[in-house]
Amino acid sequence: MDTRDLSLTVLFAALYAVLVIALAPISFGPLQLRVADVLIPLSALFGWPVVAGVTLGCLAGNAYFALGPIDVIAGPVANLLAATIILMLRRQRLLACVAGALPIGLIVGGYLWLFFPPPESLSFLPVWAGMTVSLTTSSLIAIGVLGYALLVVLSQPHILEPLKARGLKTLK
Question: Does residue 118 contact residue 131 with C-beta atoms inside 8 Å?
Fold first, then answer.
């Protein structure tokens, strides 16, 4: 990892943490749309610096609101898995984004029911299942729809070429 990669990691970590903290009312809880998760698909474009950045940013954001040690540890692990899956499947970007949303929904939904009841609309399911469905749905929206759209836009040559000309390394 060189200085540019480290800088990009710090940039993504800070951006992720700021988005989580600034948008806290919708970043936490049983019904959440973690807008910061739109950054996770950018691992398909910028590689390991994004994987590390969204993992560290999640650690910072979750530690700031500290639901407990499980959230501070498992949330970043979910982001690490999601971003790594997207990086590994980057040649099939839509599939990568959909697959990348699943670890967050399953891992975070798998423990968040300990802190919050699931949404009323899912009350017919067991508590843990309702929360998992809720978090998986929100992750699919943030990563599979919005994040994928951001990835497509930033991958356009007229946006990407000036960045590459200034020394930014991309995988495309």
Answer: yes
Give one DSSP letter per residue of 30-82, joined into a string.
Answer: SS---GGGGGGGGHHHH-HHHHHHHHHHHHHHHHHH---HHHHHHHHHHHHHH
Task: Please give the backbone phi and psi of residue 30, each rounded to the nearest 5 degrees, phi first.
Answer: -70, -30
**Length of the chain as a residue count:** 172
What is the distance of C-alpha 64 from the center of its chain?
Answer: 17
Tokens 């070429």 correspond to what residue? 161
**Is the CB of residue 35 less than 8 Å from the CB of residue 23?**
yes
Contacts for 130 with CB less than 8 Å, ≥ 6 apart: 113, 118, 119, 122, 123
Ordered by where they begin, the domains of the chain are 3-165 (1.10.1760)
Rg (CA), the chain: 16
What 2-5 contacts at long range (C-beta under 8 Å, 24+ apart), as own/partner pairs, is 4/167, 4/168, 4/169, 5/48, 5/49, 5/169
Residue-averaged pLDDT of the chain:
94
Query: pLDDT for 64-119, tens place per residue?
Result: 987 889 999 999 999 999 999 999 999 999 999 999 999 999 999 999 988 888 78
